[in-house]
Structure formats: C-alpha cells, structure tokens
Amino acid sequence: MTTKFIGKRVKRNEDPRLLTGQAQFVDDVEIPGMLHAAFLRSDYAHARLLSIDVSEARKRAGVVAVFTAEDMGDDWQPGPPLVSPPPTVKDVIFHSRRQVPLVKDKVRHAGEAIAVVIAESRYIAEDAVEDILVEFEPLEAVIDLEKGLEAGSPLVHDDLESNLAAHLFQKKGDYEAAREKADLVIARRIVVDRGAAAAMENRGIVTDWDKKSQHLTVWDTTQAPIPIRNGLVARLGLSEHKVRVIAPFIGGGFGPKMMMFYPEEMLIPWVSMKLNRPIKWIEDRRENFYATTQERGQIHDVEIALSKDGHILGLKDIFLHDTGAYDPYGLTTPLNTQCHVMGPYDIKNFTSEVSVVFTNKTLVTPVRGAGRPQGIYIIERLLDIAARELGIDLIAIRKRNLIPPDAFPYEHEIIDQAFAPLVLDSGNYWPVMEKALEMVGYDQFIEYEQPRLRAEGKYVGIGVIPFLESTGVGPYEGARVTVEASGKINVATGIGTQGQGHFTSFAQIVAEQLGVAVCDVRIVTGDTAEFHWGTGTFASRGAVVAGNAIHASASIVRQKVLKLASKILKTPEEELELEDGLVRVIDIPHKSISLGELALLANPLRGAVQPGTEPGLEATAYFGPQYGATAFGTHAMILEIDPETMMLEIKRYITVEDCGTVLNPLILEGQIHGGVSMGIGNAYYEKLHFDENGQLLNASFADYLIPSATELPRIEVGHVETQSPLNELGAKGVGEAGTLPVPALFAQAIENALNNRDLEILETPLSPNRLYELLRPNEEKSR
Amino acid sequence: MKPAPFKYYAPTTVEEALTHLAEHGYDAKVLAGGQSLIPMMNFRLVQPSVLVDLNNISELSFINPDENGGLRVGAMARHHQVEVDPLVAIQAPLLHETMPKIATAQIRSRGTFGGSLSHADPSAELVSVNVALDGRFRLRSQNGERWVPAHEFFIGLFTTVLQPDELLVEVALPAMPVRSGWSLMEVARRPHDFALVGVAAVVTLDENRLCQQARMVFLSAGDVPMVAHRAAELLKGQAPTRESIRAAAEIAASEDIDPGGDIHATAEFRCHLANVLARRSLEQAFERAAGNE
Ligand SMILES: Cc1cc2nc3c(=O)[nH]c(=O)nc-3n(C[C@H](O)[C@H](O)[C@H](O)COP(=O)(O)OP(=O)(O)OC[C@H]3O[C@@H](n4cnc5c(N)ncnc54)[C@H](O)[C@@H]3O)c2cc1C
C-alpha cells in the first residue's frame, strides 16, 4: 500500500500547545466559587478505626465541610467491580474486595483516605486535616506474600478465611510427561518487586454541579472517561446525558489512571452535589505514592525442562501475585504474566498456577507492561541459565525455540485478559532479532571488542532480549468523523489521551482517506459529551482499536464525499481523487470542488433530504478486533560496569520493533524511548521500599529514583513490519513494548560484563547495593 | 503539600534580619535559597511561625579575595555563582570542582553557600569540602560576632553551633599551601543525587615528596563530616605509594567513618565504597600535589 500520510514522520499537531503551556490540564480548570479538597490519610497500613473527631477541623475559618464515612450514610459504597475473573477458566477462585470512598471500620493500606476536608483553599484544607483527631488500634500488617498465606496470618479482610484473593490454574500439553523426557531441568525462585508508575502529573479532579440544570461536569485525569461517566451515573442516580466527564490533556497515565474508580473519583463529585459547589482536588506527590495504584510484586517458583540441544520441552510456573489491599481490577495482570512467561517461544507443555494475595499495601492494577515484564523476565533468565548449563550460545538457544513464521496464526492456548485463549495473529521473529544483532554489532563485539576492552581492565557486557507483547485487545472503540463547512475535519473518539500523539497519528489516518492536510484534522478525545461509546486507553490499544474505528468512519465519509461530488461534478466516482482538501477529476485538475463546499451542499437549508440518506458528510463507525494483535521486538544493549562501585553506564541501546504498520515513526520512537526509560527504572532504579509495618520508606522523588536525562542512553530504533491481518491498518500496539524486556536485558548484560564473577541474577529491580550484596558471598568464597 | 501558616519578613540589611531573629528566636527560620527549607515546610516536617527571608540582603552575596591569598564567600552567594567565579577556580580548585556535583543546575541557581552549611546535611558536598579546606565561619547576632572553625561548626545530624538568633554571614577559606593536591570523589545513584558516599581530600607534600599532611573528609559517612584522622596519621611522613595509599584507605573506611544504612545502601556497602573512593581520591590528590611544586 503506498500512502501519503500514514507512515510519515509528521511533526505532532499537539506540540505547539503543549510546549508553550497552552494545553489544558485538570489543574488549569478554574471555576468561580470553587472549593478545594484535602484528605486525611492513614499513617498506619493496618489498623482498626476506633473513633474520629472532626469538630476542631469544622471550626477552622475557611473550612466549609468535613466528611467521614459516617457522614456519607447510605451513599457509602465500595467501588464497582471493574474486571471480573475470566469465566472461561475452570475452577477459578476469586474474592472480590473493592476500595472504599472513606475508611469506615478498618484501614487496609497506608495512605487510605479517612476523611475529606473542603475549604476555601488547599492551604486551609491541609491545615484543617491536621486538626482531625483519630484513634486507631494498630494491627499487624500483611506485607510478605508467603507469610500472608500462612495459617495464622493477620487478615486484610476479616470476613475471608485467608489472604488468598484469587487462584487460577492454566495448562497446555503435559508438563510432567515432558519433564520425564528432559535432559536438563532447571528450577529457580525468581522475584520481581514493586514500583510506581510515577506519571509526571499526579491525579486530579474538578467537579461542577449545576443544580438548576441537574448537570454534572467532571474533569478527571482518567485514561477512560466513558467508564467513569457510566459509573458516576450509576452511583449518583443521574441520567447518562446529565453527566459529562472530560479527560483533558494528562501528564502521563501508564495504567493507574485507567478506569479505576478511585475513592476520590467517587467522593469529589458526590461532595460537589452535596454542597452545590465546584470542587477541585489535585493529588500531591506524597499522596500519589500511597494512593495511586502500583504494580509488579510477584514471586515465581519456576521450572524449565530442556533437551540437551536446547529445545524447551516444557515450563512450569507457580507464582504469587501481590494485589495490595483490594482487587477491583480482577486478574488482568497475572493473566498477562501467564500469557507472556512462555515468551516468543514455541513451548508445547506448560503449567501455570497463580495465587493472588491481599496485602496491606497500595492497590495493584496494571502499570505499563501489566504483568508482561514479569513473564519476559522469567523465561529469559531461565534461558540464560540453560544456555550456560548446556554450553549453548545465548542467541542460538533463543533462535532454536522461536515460534517459526509458518506457525501463525499461532494457537497459544492460554487464556488472556480478553478471556479467550490467546492466538498470536502474525509474526516473523528471527529477522527482528537478526536486525538487532546487526545494529548492535554482536559478533564484532563478542569476537574483538569485548576481549580488547577486557584486556584493558574494562568490564563491558552485552545483552540481547527478544519479547512479544499482546496488544490491541477489544472490546471495541468508535469514532465520528465530520467534514465541517470550513473544509476542516472534526473527529471525536472516546478514549483518553496522555501524550501519545493521538492528535497527530489519528489525524494522519483521516488525512489519508480524505486528502486533507494533517493539521486540518481536529481530534477530540476523552470527552463524553462529544463521544460516549468506548472503553479507554490501555493495553497498547489506542492506535489499533480507536485507530481502526477512525479509519472505518473516515472511509465511510470518503464514500459519501465521492458520491456527492460525482453528482455535482458529473463524473463517475472512479475518476475522482481527494487531494489538498478538494475533490477533483483525475486528469482535469481544475475541475474540482472543495470539501467545505461539499459539506455545505450536504446540509441544505432548503429542499428535502432524500429518504434513506443523512445530512452532512459525517459517519460514525466502530471497530472491535476478533482478538488482540501481538507485536514483537528485540532490545540489545552494551554496558560497562565499575566492578568496585557497581555503577554502570549504558554504552549502546538498540531496539527493533515489529508493531505492524507504523503510523508515524516519530511518535513510535517517542513511545519506545519513554518505554525504555521506564524499563530502565524498573531494572535498576525504581523500587518501592515497604517496611514490615507497611510503611513506604521512599514516598518522594528524593528517595524514589526515576531515571532522568543523565541516566538515559541514546536509543537507536529499528523497525520491521509484519502487518496484522486482524485490522485494515495492519497495526499492532507498541505503547508498552519499550518497557517489557529491559529488566531481563540488564540482568543478562550485567552477568555478561561480570562473567568471571559467578553471578546469577534472579531478581529485579537491581541496584549497585544489591549487586554488591549478590557478589559478596562469591568474593568471600574465592578469598 | 502546602506549608503551615507563617509570618514573613523580608529585611534588606543584616542588622534588620538580626533584629527579627532576636525577637522571634526559636519560632523563626531563616530562608536562604529555600532548596532544603521549602520542601521540609511543604512536607510539614518543620513549621516555623516566622520566616526571615535573606534574599533581599545584597551585602551577603559576595565572593572576594582576602589579604592572605585566601577567599571570602558571603552566605548568600549562590552555588551557581561560586561555580563560575574565576577567582574560585584559581584559588580554590577543590571548591570549583565540587560545585557541579551539587544537585542540578536549577537547584544551584537558587541554593546558597551559607544555606548548605547552616543546613548541615552530612551528605552535602560543601560541608565536607569546607572542613577539608579548613574554612572558618563568621557568625553574627545582635550581641556581636564570632569566628568558628569549620570542623567545630558541625555538631550533629543537621545540627550546628548556630544559636537561634545567629546568622552565618561569611566563610573564610585559607590559601592552599604549595605542593598541595586535592580531589573530590563520590558515588551517587544519579549524578545529581546526594552521594551514597563521597570524600574530599586535600594533601600536601614536603620538600622530599613525603606526605606532610593528608586530610580526607567523608560525606554521607556519619552524622557529621567525617575527618579521617587515623588515615592521616598513617600517611604522615610516608611516601605516597600504592601500598601506603591502600593502607590509608583501608583504615579510613574501617576506623574513621561511621556510616548508617538506608534503602539506598547498607552501612557495609558504604564502607566498601569509602575504601574505593579514598584510594582513588588519594591517588589523584597526590598526583596533583606532585605536579604543583
Ligand atoms: C532535589 C535536590 C537535590 C539536592 N542535591 C544536593 C546535593 O547533591 N548536594 C548538596 O550539597 N545539596 C543538595 N541539595 C541541597 C541544596 O544544595 C540546598 O541549596 C542547600 O542544602 C541549602 O541551601 P539553601 O540556600 O537552599 O538553604 P535553605 O533551604 O533556604 O535553608 C536551609 C537551612 O539553613 C538555614 N539557613 C540558611 N541560610 C542561613 C544563614 N545564612 N544563617 C543561618 N541559617 C541559615 C535555614 O534556616 C534552613 O534551616 C539538593 C536539593 C534539592 C532540592
């Protein structure tokens, strides 16, 4: 397919607004008479609430109201269940326990909200929070996943028999039989710890209740405004068209801003209606560390069976997954882990069993990667160990096991987050890996450079990690495309946006169909008054699902345009082309009519619109994929480590992505750069340190380290395109791809750099301190 | 994260500032660059009821040479100002080399010399560097002034000899003797972070190229800047060889410091790093001293 706009390095339509500070974020919303909210949050992770005294707070000048759970009466309800467990998996156990707007009886994680103060300014509200007196009975906290499941452990939810939140078993083939035949079985315990999403913008909500028109407007930092609107409608007993949720520009989402229905999202609109006043709540960074969801905590006991020539015969993975204090998001994250722990490899025999555990920690919901990085980390670590034990090259063992190109669509068989057995739609994996090896100069490095640098006393290492990513899942998204009388195009879709470049990549899709300039396509995302069907931005699905819905509506509009122009220009449709905002006759360029004129003609002021036709040049269409599209990629890295201080420096960083059709390479590279940066954080910097009482020890950017410009390498991006057969654009998602393989890549490259020091890394994130601890026993042995 | 209410004064002279401090005493806090104080107020870790802002007092922002070939640095000299000052580059190369390692450019454009010292964070580079350079601090109150040597100024974690009614107004740094060399080395997770461990070293050779004096002051290695006395004794009169340097580094890391452990590094790892950095910094400092005859 030759294209004019799709696949081009178009500069982003939204950047002038963003870079000059003209874009609207939630905190930019100012409404006359607006009040400000601040929350009293628990310092304890686990405690019974004995009494609350808010009388002093209520008396403080400038305080308008203080609410506790008690004050909410019957309106106090836990959040709605967001995602149920997959009904398709047999014998699944699932205990649904949802977050509450304000703590009533028992605090279940540090930072859980106990009371909300509404005041004339945030300053006063915070002063009043300090006036509130609470009596707690501290309880022993559930922090460790294994201890949490032991008999006699304190319970996060007293009405349950244990802290088991869910249990899920999946298999294909017969692992035990495969194990019998194996030449080598490797068993390891691998631990992945928890991090934060750490979006640049924290969460925030502004609500405006207009009593006279009984209309509620909510500006919300959400990735999924439509589900939030639907939830509020149900909660507040309003009609759907009386609640408008707007997700304006958002400074990063990364998952936690999904359709969470956070306590604040339930509470602030309710308070606004109670007080009949606009209210603003902007989460601060400290609150974000306690009250915004997090991810990654898992412990895997895993076993891989191989033949001596390095073929994987089977894999068995028994793991614990930390869900935090509640589990509104169901099993999405552990399901993703189950679907990615076989990596891009053809494994016939597989058993996976997960126990999800309630703990007295902040809730876990998907964070960029969403269970996938854990899976990738585990299989790749096992392959590195296997390669060493079998004396096979690290690349060769992977090549040997990759799913071959003729196996697609590949029946993966494990049930995924869409509740159906995963099918890998398309792929051609080896050329992607090969390109990464070429770009990083693998052979050259191993043969010449590494020995030369080692001789100079430098500890340099290389890593190469392939990975797959299931993306673009359903159910559906929709869009409405309208040609306006000005000739400009208006597009409305329901998903939210957080900086991915939707205003450009979606515009390119429309420009391709309608022959207008990309800057003449105006995109509206995330405003339920403009479009109210759809789910949201998550699971690397924006470009695939919303992108194809936009493509479908633009195609219909194109047909309408051609039909009308054909009549007016008295030329058959096949002889017309759409170029430069005009419809013109192919060989007679001056015989043309502009899209604007056509739009006016399609909306006549006199005469009758023919029965069976619609006015205007407008169409609404939907796209729901049969199943998700699966992308593939490979990252390669060369790093140098100071063996005394454990400080490391990334010398080269290469990614090669196959995410099907590339809509805009500039935007794609931006997504990958951001993803890699987050992956580097996951691998070497970002770890939430909870103590045994459930206190977070690094709840600020002074101590929670995110990689910054000084730590990030130059990232070289290569592309390979294997189009998805599941959608017309041939697109696959890439939003999370940058993150997935990085921890595995770090582990491999660090081991390679320190290869004379007998190091086996079985955990992530790492740190200089941790590496020192891991190497220490070896040093002592060798002394 | 909003501070608790406070009264705000913005004096334009030191005299005026001292009057406010005398009046409000323990209830008042001085605001310099605000890079440490404001975050602590926003976290409500400190809740002063009075803030005395020094930013309008222009008489405190100087960097001057003194009669004895040393330097005088005013308390309100910004980190950035010190970083780019040509006099500092020539007369106090250790200080010059230190400045870019403090935080980020944004923070250095606000943070002040006096603020960093008064804050007395044992992880702050300037705290250890001033001890290594034998700085002397001039403190003033309405009752008069006193000079305090740097190594007596810091008495505990975030604690100095400053009285509530006193201001640190300037620092005097003596000229470095001939045949001296210097080094500042640190290990930080990210270049702009506070160091896990760091060391400022100043060494002087005698005419026979033997060590006349070797002072190492560690940061993030105890509650105060940690002076490596035992290592200094060991080196005194010795030729700076690989072996003597190694031995001094070992002693410094095992006997002269007392680091704590936290989420970023255990005490053991800090001692290990201190050993590595002591060795590397002594090597660099002695090399420079040999070149500085
Ligand atoms: C993100 C970040 C990273 C940082 N990284 C580093 C780093 O790597 N290394 C480092 O050394 N520092 C670092 N800092 C701290 C920075 O250097 C500060 O500038 C410094 O610690 C305090 O200086 P200030 O002028 O901002 O003082 P302020 O914050 O205004 O004051 C600090 C304290 O000193 C008192 N005070 C200030 N001036 C005087 C005076 N003249 N007399 C008496 N008392 C006074 C104040 O009352 C207050 O208690 C960092 C800060 C931030 C925010």
Descriptive terms for the model:
heterodimer; A: 783 residues; alpha+beta; Aldehyde Oxidoreductase, domain 4; 7-stranded mixed sheet; 30 strands; 28% helix; globular; B: 293 residues; Uridine Diphospho-n-acetylenolpyruvylglucosamine Reductase, domain 2; Uridine Diphospho-n-acetylenolpyruvylglucosamine Reductase, domain 3; Enolase-like, domain 1; 3 domains; 5-stranded antiparallel sheet; 4-stranded antiparallel sheet; 12 helices; 35% helix; 24% strand; binds flavin-adenine dinucleotide
How would you characterize the overall build of this protein?
The complex is a heterodimer of chains A (about 775) and B (about 290). Chain A is of the alpha+beta class and about 775 residues long. Chain A has a domain at about 15-20 and about 475-625: 2-Layer Sandwich (Aldehyde Oxidoreductase, domain 4), CATH 3.30.365.10. In chain A, the strands form 7 sheets. Chain A has a 7-stranded mixed β-sheet with strand order 3-6-1-13-10-11-12, with helices on both faces. In chain A, strands 4-8-16-15-14-9-30 form a 7-stranded mixed β-sheet, with helices on both faces. A 4-stranded mixed β-sheet of chain A has the order 19-27-28-29, sandwiched between helices. The longest helix of chain A has 28 residues, at about 540-570. Chain A is globular, with a radius of gyration of 28 Å. The relative contact order of chain A is 0.13. The mean pLDDT of chain A is about 95. Chain B has helices at about 15-25, 35-40, 80-85, 85-90, 95-100, 105-110, 115-120, 125-130, 150-155, 230-235, 240-255, 265-290, and strands at about 5-10, 30, 50-55, 65, 70-75, 135-140, 145-150, 155, 160, 165-175, 180-185, 195-205, 210-220, 225. In chain B, the strands form 4 sheets. Chain B has a 5-stranded antiparallel β-sheet with strand order 4-5-10-6-7. Chain B has about 290 residues and is an alpha+beta fold. In chain B, helix 2 links the parallel strand 2 (about 30) and strand 3 (about 50-55). Chain B is globular. The mean pLDDT of chain B is about 95. In chain B, helix 10 runs antiparallel to helix 11 (about 240-255) and helix 11 runs antiparallel to helix 12. Chain B has 3 domains: about 5-55, Uridine Diphospho-n-acetylenolpyruvylglucosamine Reductase, domain 2 (2-Layer Sandwich); about 60-175, Uridine Diphospho-n-acetylenolpyruvylglucosamine Reductase, domain 3 (2-Layer Sandwich), CATH 3.30.465.10; about 180-290, Enolase-like, domain 1 (2-Layer Sandwich), CATH 3.30.390. The interface of A and B includes residues 645, 711 and 767 of A. Flavin-adenine dinucleotide (FAD) binds near residues 34, 75 and 162 of chain B.
